[in-house]
Prior knowledge:
The complex is a heterodimer of chains A (255) and B (323). With 255 residues, chain A is an alpha/beta fold. Helix content of chain A is 27%, strand content 29%. Chain A starts with 6 loop residues before the first strand and ends with a helix. With 323 residues, chain B is α/β, with parallel strands linked by helices. Chain B has 2 domains: 2-174, 3-Layer(aba) Sandwich (Rossmann fold), CATH 3.40.50.620; 204-321, Rossmann fold (3-Layer(aba) Sandwich), CATH 3.40.50. In chain B, 31% of the residues lie in helices and 26% in strands. Chain B is built from 10 helices and 15 strands. Chain B has helices spanning 16-32, 47-53, 65-68, 72-86, 97-110, 219-228, 236-240, 271-277, 293-297, 306-321, and strands spanning 2-5, 36-41, 58-62, 90-94, 114-122, 127-133, 138-144, 149-153, 170-174, 186-192, 204-208, 231-234, 261-265, 282-287, 300-303. Chain B is elongated and about 65 Å long. In chain B, 54% of the residues are buried. Classes of the chains: A alpha/beta (255), B alpha/beta (323). Strand 13 of chain A pairs parallel with strand 15 (300-303) of chain B. Adenosine monophosphate binds at residues 10-12, 40, 42-43, 65-67, 94, 96, 98, 101, 120-121, 123-124, 127-133 of chain A. Chain A: Residues 27-206 form the Electron transfer flavoprotein alpha/beta-subunit N-terminal domain. Chain A: Heterodimer of an alpha and a beta subunit.
Amino acid sequence: xxxxxxVLVCIKRVPAVGAEIALTADATxxxxxxxxxxxxxxEECAVEEAVRLAERTGGRAGVLTVxxxxxxxxxxxxxxxxxxxxxxxxxxxxxxEPEVTAAAIAGALGELPPYDLxxxxxxxxxxxxxxxxxxxxxxxxxxxxxxxxxIEVGDGRVSxxxxxxxxxxVHDAPLPAVAAVLEGLNLPRYPTIKxxxxxxxxxxxxxxxxxxxxxxxxxxxxxxxEARAETVLLGQGAGAAPAVVxxxxxxxxxx
Amino acid sequence: MVLAWIExxxxxxxxxxxxxxxxxxxxxxxxxxxxxxxxxxGEPGDLPDDLAKQGVAHLVLLQHELLADAPPATVGEALAxxxxxxxxxxxxxxxxxxxxxxxxxxxxxxxxxxATACTEIRPGEPWEVTRERAGxxxxxxxxxxxxxxxxxxxxxxxxxxxxxxxxxxxxxxxVPDLDPTxxxxxxxxxxxxxxxxxxxTAPVVVSGGRGVGSAEGYAVLEELAGLLGxxxxxxxxxxxxxxxxxADQVGLTGTRISPDLYVACGISGATQHWVGCMSAxxxxxVNTDPEAAMMRRATWAVVGDVxxxxxAVVAEIRRRAGP
Lengths: 255, 323
Ligand SMILES: Cc1cc2nc3c(=O)[nH]c(=O)nc-3n(C[C@H](O)[C@H](O)[C@H](O)COP(=O)(O)OP(=O)(O)OC[C@H]3O[C@@H](n4cnc5c(N)ncnc54)[C@H](O)[C@@H]3O)c2cc1C
Ligand SMILES: Nc1ncnc2c1ncn2[C@@H]1O[C@H](COP(=O)(O)O)[C@@H](O)[C@H]1O
């Protein structure tokens, strides 16, 4: 019989960029004036998994973000997916350095009721530092496994599956534990209207953040130089087929 | 001293990514006037010979029973201990998931920052790095200010190629002091993946997005991929709709691929998809919208409906192949 699982998922508000990315005038950030915001797919799967684990074991599924009040939009999205409580650790920006984020999360976990499992995305969708979950695990002295694509709960333990070393690995960890997960772990649900209405009115607990700093500081962002030649238009519709097959033949991929 | 963390393959040889780490460490050591020490797990095997050829004269082998079946965090604990003992100027590792996890734990244990996915490291006052963001669509120039600089390197980090071999490699076995009271995850099962062509290794990938319209719509992509000796890929819209398994997804949160040819059918070319296929040697886009970003970035473009263009291409290939 699996333990009752109380699960916390750490999520990050990130700009939902399209085909082009505009930078601010000082090039220190993405210009978000015309953008919406979202959470990364890894984290969406983490929320889905937490909700399922809580449902299955009669536990709780919480979500936490570190950032300014605007980041509550993403907490509410997670609540609409079925999370039952939300915590915001106050920070002036939604994209703090990973050391700062980890200190804020580890500090909050000291104040909140205990969780059996804390889930992270493998990497945040914008900065992609790929480290916050491991930092939190280190600070809290908890076992941690990354790249997780399968979670099974046992009695006081959790079994974490991931792809590594040219195959599939299963790791067994005592609870409480930490995992960084990957998209593909599950297929996240779309929030229902009922879920959205409930999320709108749900309270968000706000905690003060620590005054941490980091030696890693962004100077500027820039676009990767792209060296692609002009696109060659091969034609329209079915009539383009001979030109397409000429190209394929030239590449040597068909006879 | 510059420490270079060396990932080894099943045969015990340094992985290709580890080779690039060594080359960058050598460059950095040259700039700093510091020697390079390679750090790896396990027994020496051929590693000292491999390192000698790369001009690296020092090897530390970390050996501890806990390292054999622990996930990378425990490697990170061992690395942190080594850093504390030896006081290197920098520690470099490959930006693979496993090495990144080890470095993340090490940096946390040491209380220093970690710059991941770096393409460049510039020692100075202060040190600076260039790292990839959002899957590499953006580059970030950042200060890395710490008593020891920890960084993971993406493929394509700076290397200088030729070096003089080292006459001799000094091998030092270190048994790290791992905290016996720390709760750890343990590897309990390892299954080798079936070999064969995967999305990541296929020379041709025929990929479909929302424009394919349905799970059944992928039949013609499967057929074309079969004729081209390739694999089928997809966008996140296809995965989210349940049309394709996530293992087929190309992009930031799917697989990054670099095939000779990427055929993008009914895919708009959002940045999160683009970072997964931008390393393809060539791209053929099929899209009803000539203004789609994928069409502008492709090598070749066909304006049209996937389900008109692809069947015609398949028929043309079969016609030319003859009866
Ligand atoms: C943090 C984050 C991570 C993400 N990670 C990924 C990722 O790893 N991989 C990924 O793919 N996406 C990812 N996405 C989603 C991404 O932003 C896009 O939403 C997605 O790539 C769009 O898929 P698409 O091109 O199939 O659909 P759309 O953008 O809707 O484009 C469909 C295209 O098909 C064309 N079309 C329509 N009908 C036809 C037809 N009959 N014939 C030909 N063309 C037609 C249209 O003109 C259009 O260009 C991520 C998003 C976020 C926010
Ligand atoms: N500001 C934040 N608030 C809450 N969780 C975060 C934040 N930033 C990162 N995380 C979590 O840490 C993971 C890894 O982030 P990163 O180390 O930035 O790649 C993300 O997928 C989130 O789960």
